[in-house]
């Protein structure tokens, strides 16, 4: 099938089915796995978040001495840094794709542009609604968890590993952040689809059927409290604080990319960069499939994996119809 960007009535349809990464293949495929880790998992956004975490730890974080006592002043600084970086990525993508429509509808997964007059959104405006929940609640809960973890490091409540002592272990754990975050996402997201929690909290995120960069962490405060428990692993598994910052960036900023609503970015007229996560996009469309992310393919185990093809759409429709008839 052709790779040319096309718009069908259902938005851009990537040509290939979504597959489980080669890491999980049997017999093992080590070369394909290595290639996937560096190109599929980390390039380019993962490397960007790693770089941002290193810069933030060295230049944009209060000293550990200062963080030894919980004070609003330095927690606000962490909030400001996180909000600024989220604003840079989500705001940048939003301006490029939706305000200036720099690539028009090429690779657009959404069927429509974002909503500007719908009562279901705060201020009747999807983008303003999304920005409000992302900054007021999302960034605040994320920064509080991060601050609490840093405070625990500063007081030796949790063990810390230095890069000079265990560089290979910490390099492996850096990649581990991406697997842990996506595995944790399946767990917390599956829980949020439990009806009482869905109705109280997760419904707010699902107001967004067509999604944009600011939809990424546009969630109910209760969902944020659950979603950012991702930090807790580092309370028991010893790592370096830079990985805590990376965890925050991957959990807090990468959804702006995955929710961009465009499968690829076209930069400078021809350079194509991976952007929207079609796997999660399908979740926003159909709700009861694709609870996780592809790097930790738990959906495959539980039969909720939707590979994004028209055949899978048809099979899901058929299952729903059969359930409806039985019920
Ligand atoms: Zn989402
Ligand atoms: Zn959901």
Would you give an account of this structure?
With 327 residues, this protein is mainly α. The protein has one domain. It contains 13 helices and 2 strands; from the N terminus they run ααααααααααββααα. β1 (264-267) and β2 (271-274) form a beta hairpin. The radius of gyration is 20 Å and the shape is globular. The two termini are 39 Å apart. The structure holds zinc ion (2 copies). The site of one zinc ion has 4 residues, from α11.
Give the secondary structure arrangement, pairings included:
Layout: H1 30-42, H2 45-59, H3 72-99, H4 126-154, H5 167-192, H6 195-200, H7 221-227, H8 233-236, H9 241-252, H10 254-258, E1 264-267, E2 271-274, H11 278-286, H12 298-302, H13 310-326
Antiparallel strand pairs: 1-2
Helix pairs in contact: 2-9, 3-4, 4-9, 5-9
